[in-house]
Design brief:
heterodimer, A: alpha/beta, Rossmann fold, about 30% strand, B: alpha/beta, 2 domains, 9-stranded mixed beta sheet, 6 helices, binds adenosine-5'-triphosphate, binds magnesium ion
Chain lengths: ~250, ~425
């Protein structure tokens, strides 16, 4: 589904990604862990199409297309979704209106007719129920005045509405209580199929009890320095990242 | 006669029955005053020299219909072309409690007599073409608005046009004003109004400015509020090359509410200047002022809002805000909110912001699949919707959104913004 090769990226002349490799296939769940500042959100932003970064080397193939050449909106329309670590508040723009526009732009891109008002409202009801998002929140201004947890849930609600091929969840679990965590994980698991894939960025192995990954990767100083099965997450939580540093020095 | 005002030579002094003192004073101002330059404080950011270079005339003209020159569909519509009353296009019956007369049909028109150097006010009176007087009779509650349409037609036309409204005690009514142009370039509507809001009266003015590029609009609304009254004016500027709106509101009675809102969405080389004055002379009143603008391309907006709270005017709540969004590096805003408070027990605030759209928000919307254009449209319309929401009449609101969609290539559904 997505193949990242030797990705190097700078921001304001500072190297952040330094030769990152990752391959995710359809049907898989990958977890990315790593210390603060390692470059996890940077990777997510670059994949989603944020323009502040300079890509100096490497390539990203998304279902046979050169992802880095695509406009942000085309990536979304082709099925890439990023649940933001810090979702922005947009006063005056209602969640529902903007989602209807987003769905219709995606449909137009695929040569389909716009969704009917009736089908759209049915979809809103179904998906807001899935993530237990209050219908009132669904129709309020995007994230405005939402609590941290509500913002995260709103991201998953949007994901459910847009049904992406590849979802990237950037610390969606941070700040969630255990109930919210279960709800979010349930949303992700319900949407999981053999045709789509998920990348979860997290600091906590707790999430991975609910969303069980096929692979766990350690992102450290701009590269994936270690990959392993789901047990690796437990080991990381117990031992921190220092032993990985030590391993790297040895190598 | 003054050099700057050579255009007056092509015009005929008013033949309406305005009082002679006012006429004499107006002529004196015209004989002794230059067009304002940017050296004068009130015109610092608005250049009117171009107006002085045009050889204006004023011709009688008419239109086959006003199909695309109206804000709303209503039988109670009055039409003026180049400041002259167009009887054929105008209604002759009005809702109960509403009496409408063209100024040309009046014996003795009462107006201000002093101009204090206001050259456009003096010009308006001395060369007044026509206008109308609307009386909302005492106790009348009028549901359907009266619509006043002014159309500039032809090139280099100068229209001196006046609207007088007397909203008598305990009445309630709305007047919708639409300013348009047809086949017009270098034409200029010089407008004034005198609005009297009676005791316990609710009066609303919805003012839509939609003259084509190439034309000028300078106007002064003068409003006097009596006690316990509510006056609301919403000024939405959609087009026109140079627009200057002066709004002077004297709150003379206690317990009044004053709402003044403005919206302007500009592009090309449009220049729109809103100068407002709210004068709180007595205690226990509220005023709420919100002006919001979106400037694209090479456009300029000027906002100068003054709120006076006189010494005896205790317990005043006065809020004033001007907020602008720039969509282009070449657009400019000059914003100056001013509070002058001489009373001590008041609640007043004012503020002004000018900025760009939030890049993070644009990125967020694009990351959900919206094109950049759709994302910008969504953010701009969300921004301006706050002020359009102040427009009370749904049909007026629908007109505004329709024109925004046409002018900016949008596809906003007004229902999305309630
Ligand atoms: N706009 C920016 N300007 C300068 N430096 C930046 C910018 N954005 C990110 N960085 C730097 O890039 C590095 C990687 O940041 P990133 O947000 O990708 O880390 P992260 O792995 O997501 O961390 P966390 O676990 O704290 O979310 C950090 O050193 C950060 O300070
Ligand atoms: Mg991060």
């Amino acid at each position: 589904m997505i193949t990242i090769k030797n990705l190097h990226a700078n921001i304001e002349d500072k190297a952040i990604l330094k030769g990152l490799n990752l391959e995710v296939k359809a049907g898989e769940v990958h977890a990315i862990m790593g210390p603060n500042g390692a470059g996890k959100s940077t990777l997510a932003s670059i994949l989603a199409g944020k323009e502040d970064y300079e890509i100096t080397e490497g390539s990203v193939d998304f279902d046979g297309e050169d992802l880095l050449e695509m406009e942000t909106e085309d990536r979304a329309r082709e099925g890439l979704f990023l649940a933001f670590q810090y979702p922005v508040e947009i006063p005056g723009v209602s969640n529902i209106n903007f989602l209807r526009t987003a769905i219709n732009e995606k449909r137009e891109h695929k040569g389909e007719d716009p969704i009917s008002a009736k089908d759209f409202m049915a979809l809103v009801r179904e998906k807001s129920k899935l993530v237990e998002l209050d219908a009132k929140l669904a129709s309020r201004s995007v994230n405005e005045g939402f609590s941290g947890g509500e913002k995260k849930r709103n991201e998953i609600f949007q994901m459910a509405m847009l049904e992406p091929k590849l979802a990237i969840l950037d610390e969606t679990d941070s700040g969630l209580d255990i109930d919210a965590l279960r709800i979010v994980a349930n949303g992700v698991n319900t949407l999981k199929s053999k045709d789509n894939a998920t990348i979860v960025i997290t600091h906590y192995q707790r999430l991975l009890d609910y969303i069980v990954p096929d692979f766990v990767h350690v992102l450290y100083d701009g590269r994936i320095v270690k990959s392993g099965p789901k047990e690796l997450a437990l080991e990381l939580e117990e031992k921190g990242y220092d032993w990985i540093k030590a391993e790297m020095v040895e190598a | 006669m003054n050099n700057n005002l050579k255009f007056i030579k092509g015009l005929t002094p008013t033949n309406l029955s305005v009082n002679t003192t006012a006429q004499k004073n107006a002529s004196h101002v015209l004989d002794t005053t230059d067009l304002p330059t940017t050296r004068s404080e009130a015109w610092k950011y608005t250049r009117v020299t171009k107006i002085g270079k045009i050889d204006f005339t004023n011709e009688a003209s008419t239109l086959a219909s006003i199909e695309d020159k109206k804000v709303i569909d209503t039988p109670y519509t009055l039409v003026f072309v180049n400041g002259r009353f167009s009887q054929d296009l105008s209604a002759d019956s009005f809702p109960e409690g509403v009496v409408v007369k063209p100024l040309s049909a009046l014996e003795g028109i009462t107006t201000q007599e002093e101009f204090e150097g206001d050259i456009f006010g003096a010009l308006n009176l001395a060369y007044l073409n026509d206008g109308l007087h609307i009386t909302i009779e005492k106790n009348a509650v009028v549901e359907e608005p009266v619509q006043v349409i002014h159309i500039l037609k032809g090139d280099a036309q100068l229209s001196n046009f006046k609207v007088q409204i007397d909203a008598e005690d305990f009445s309630k009514a709305t007047v919708v004003q639409g300013f348009f142009s047809e086949d017009s370039n270098n034409s200029f509507v010089n407008y004034t109004s005198d609005i009297q809001v009676g005791v316990n009266t609710h009066f609303t003015m919805e003012k839509i400015q939609d003259e084509n590029a190439g034309n000028f609009h300078i106007g002064t609304d003068t409003v006097v509020q009596d006690k316990d009254s509510t006056f609301t004016i919403n000024t939405i500027t959609l087009n026109g090359t140079l627009v200057r709106n002066n709004l002077n509101i004297s709150v003379n009675g206690e317990n009044c509410t004053t709402n003044l809102n403005g919206g302007y969405l500009l592009k090309e080389k449009q220049h729109v200047d809103n100068h407002t004055v709210v004068d709180h002379k007595v205690p226990n009143c509220n005023s709420n002022e919100l002006y919001k603008g979106v400037m694209d391309e090479n456009s300029t907006a000027v906002f100068n809002g003054k709120v006076f709270v006189r010494q005896d005017a205790q317990k005043i709540n006065a809020f004033q805000s001007n907020r602008n969004v720039l969509l282009s590096d070449n657009a400019t805003v000059n914003s100056k909110p001013e509070l002058e408070i001489y009373a001590d027990d008041v609640k007043c605030s004012h503020g002004s912001t000018t900025g760009q759209l939030d890049d993070e928000a644009i990125y967020y919307l694009r990351a959900r699949g919206l094109s950049k254009k759709a994302a910008v449209q969504m953010l701009v319309s969300a921004f301006i919707a706050e002020v359009i929401a102040e427009v009370e009449n749904e049909k007026v609101k629908a007109y505004i959104y329709k024109r925004l969609n046409e002018r900016f290539g949008w596809d906003i559904n007004p229902e999305d913004f309630g």
